[in-house]
Design goal:
Number of domains: 3
Organism: Perkinsus olseni (Perkinsus atlanticus)
Largest sheet: 5 strands, antiparallel
Protein name: Integrase catalytic domain-containing protein
GO molecular function: nucleic acid binding
Strand content: 5-15%
Radius of gyration: 32 Å
Number of helices: 6
Shape: extended
Number of strands: 7
C-alpha cells in the first residue's frame, strides 16, 4: 500500500531522472497526499475530489468490491509467488466483470458500468467482443429499478401518524440529557414551516422533524383512568 513517503520518493525520482522541479500538484484529498504536502512545503498542492462518478462514496465502494474479488481470486488459486502478467490480467478481467454486473441504481458518468458498456469490450472467458445492444441503457435502468424495489421492500420504514402544522404543540428532543432529566422538553409551538422536515419554533430555533414530536392531548374519556388523589378506598375488616 502506498504511503506519503512513496509520494515524496516519486517526486525525487522525477527530479533525478528528468531534472524537473515540481512546483504545482493537483491530486485528490487522500491521507497520503495531504501528509506528503506537509513534508514538501515548497510545492503548491491543489486538493480536489476525485473526478469520477457523481457520488465518490459509490465509486469507493466499487473499488473495495473490486479489491475483494481480486483477493479472493489469489487466495482461491493459492498464488504465493509474484503473478505473471497473464495471470494478473486474467484475474483483473474476471473481477471487473463480476463487479460490473452489480446493480448501481443512480451512478452516471465514469462509473465502472459506463466504462465497460459504453466502450468496446470482450468476454473475459472467450475473448469474443460483446454484442452492442441498442436498448442496453433501458435494460440496465429497469434492472436497477427492480433491484432497488426488492431492496426497499425488505427494509422496514417508519411512517408518521400525525401532520404538523403551524400552531401545533410539540415536544423537543434533548440531544444530551443529563441523568434523571427527561428525554423530551416543552411544549413548544411551531411558528413556521420551512419544508417537509424543517420547522421554526416559537423560540426562534430551527429544528428537524426527527427531533420533535406532536404533543398529543388525552381524550375526554381518559380522565376516568386517572386516579383521583382525593378518593379513598374503604376496606372491610372482619370484626370479632
Amino acid at each position: 500500500m502506498a504511503t506519503s513517503v512513496d509520494v515524496v520518493d516519486l517526486l525525487n525520482h522525477i527530479y533525478d531522472t528528468y531534472n524537473v522541479v515540481t512546483k504545482n500538484i493537483r491530486s485528490d484529498n487522500s491521507t497520503i497526499f495531504t501528509k506528503a504536502a506537509t513534508m514538501v512545503p515548497s510545492i503548491t498542492w491543489d486538493f480536489t475530489p476525485t473526478y469520477s462518478s457523481s457520488s465518490n462514496g459509490k465509486l469507493e465502494r466499487r473499488h473495495r468490491e473490486l479489491a475483494r474479488h481480486l483477493r479472493l481470486s489469489f487466495l482461491r488459486d493459492n498464488v504465493t509467488d509474484s503473478p505473471t502478467l497473464s495471470t494478473w490480467t486474467t484475474y483483473v478481467t474476471i473481477a471487473a466483470s463480476r463487479v460490473n454486473t452489480l446493480a448501481i441504481s443512480d451512478a452516471s458518468g465514469l462509473s465502472p458500468r459506463d466504462l465497460i458498456y459504453d466502450f468496446p469490450a470482450t468476454n473475459p472467458l472467450t475473448n469474443e467482443p460483446y454484442l452492442d445492444i441498442e436498448n442496453k441503457h433501458l435494460l440496465w435502468r429497469s434492472h436497477c429499478e427492480r433491484s432497488a424495489s426488492r431492496s426497499s421492500s425488505a427494509t422496514p420504514t417508519a411512517t408518521t401518524k400525525y401532520h404538523l402544522t403551524e400552531g401545533s404543540q410539540v415536544l423537543l428532543r434533548q440531544q444530551h440529557p443529563h441523568k434523571h432529566e427527561p428525554r423530551w422538553e416543552g411544549p413548544f409551538e411551531i411558528a413556521k414551516i420551512l419544508g417537509d422536515n424543517r420547522f421554526v419554533l416559537n423560540t426562534g430555533q430551527h429544528v428537524h422533524s426527527k427531533n420533535i414530536k406532536l404533543l398529543i392531548d388525552l381524550p375526554d374519556d381518559a380522565s376516568s383512568d386517572i386516579i383521583n388523589p382525593d378518593s379513598h378506598v374503604v376496606l372491610d375488616q372482619d370484626t370479632d
